[in-house]
Amino acid sequence: MAVFDSKKKWVGAFMMVLLMFYFAAAAVSEISRNRNGGRDKLQSSSDSSMAARVAEDDQGFNKHAVEDPEEIASMVDMSIRNSTERRKLGYFSCGTGNPIDDCWRCDPNWHKNRKRLADCGIGFGRNAIGGRDGRFYVVTDPNDDDPVNPRAGTLRHAVIQNEPLWIVFKRDMVIQLKQELIMNSFKTIDGRGVNVHIANGGCITIQYVTNIIIHGLHIHDCKPTGNALVRSSPTHFGWRTMADGDAVSIFGSSHIWVDHNSLSNCADGLVDAVMGSTAITISNNHMTHHNEVMLLGHSDSYTRDKQMQVTIAYNHFGEGLIQRMPRCRHGYFHVVNNDYTHWEMYAIGGSGNPTINSQGNRYAAPTNPFAKEVTKRVETATTEWKNWNWRSEGDLLLNGAYFTPSGAGASASYARASSLGAKSSAMVGSITSGSGALPCRRGHPC
Description:
Blueprint (H helix, E strand, L loop, with lengths): L1 H60 L7 H6 L1 H7 L18 H4 L30 E5 L15 H5 L5 E5 L3 E3 L5 E2 L4 E4 L5 E4 L4 E4 L2 E6 L2 E3 L7 E6 L2 E5 L7 E4 L2 E6 L2 E3 L6 E4 L3 E6 L2 E3 L1 E3 L1 E3 L12 E5 L2 E2 L3 E3 L3 E3 L2 E5 L2 E2 L7 E4 L3 E5 L2 E3 L10 E3 L4 H4 L4 E4 L2 E3 L29 H4 L15
Parallel strand pairs: 1-2, 2-5, 3-6, 4-7, 5-8, 6-9, 7-12, 8-13, 9-14, 12-15, 13-16, 14-17, 15-19, 16-20, 17-21, 18-22, 19-23, 20-24, 21-25, 23-26, 24-27, 25-28, 26-29, 27-30, 28-31
Antiparallel strand pairs: 10-11
GO molecular function, one term: metal ion binding
Organism: Malus baccata
EC number: 4.2.2.2
């Protein structure tokens, strides 16, 4: 019995030691979790402050427009930061991975903060501020009765003014322009919150001006116009020869951003940029039902277009498109994170030795076995184009699509054709899901 009692005492003592060890371990674990939590919170706060400082520095730097390709090439690293750190998002819950949209669309008060859009640009046209520094101009009249003496309240009267203006619309409207709409510098046309169509007449001409933002419009069925007098400023009007019928024509202009528009079925191109235009971003547009979609570069002989730099990002090239998405001459072109769901002849073409940097796009080839190639060198012998710098990096090629690269593979060769960090091609569906003019409602995220 004495031996049994002794064993009971030892077992009890052993159990007490186990219990003490258990509670001690639990306490240490809890302290560790609290310390880690505090460190995580501290790190988050530190990162937030650093991002805010970077944001302030970048916003100050971006007050100065880019003047030449060398400067843009040297700012590639800043461009990558520009797509993330300088954004004061604050609304991560609805983010899509699209740095433009995540910059402003999640804000339910976007209609009270419209000019924030001007700080959301990316790519070569990221410094386009439009009418950010001016007053709001409300278009109340859809008519275009007199292209020489436009009435106050019309879109034509707004865009020809000399001062910076952020142009918005009082209500839904269809604007049929008698002649091309010739824009003056430092203007934003902002169609958010209403349903605005520019259709069945002249369309937008951006000629020898700077700092233009075109956002949130439906532009379609544009017709050739001209052989008429048209006003281009409060103090000047002149004779215009025939315009081609582009949705957006960019001619000898810089710092241009064409974003979130629905473009289709025009007489010539949907977006054409020629005659020395540069510092352009074409983003988030939905393009459909058109033959020659986008021409970038005037002609093989016009060498001033060697300075051209264009970013084509987050667009959906959709139903009924045939070719030129884009068709490039000379210059430097960054084609990044676009969704190519339709083409009948080819997607990306060029001549005149352009540099084309295709990154993170999704190319879905048509069923036609003779139209699987993404690329086309237009009327150029292989011995010549084999030295052009065209590359595909991280692109998703579907349904037999293939991209024919050429030239140098080294990244340094594409410095002037790099304007932002590409996302994974697996994200293209999400990034481009809101392409085109958006159905924004006041008081709700857009």
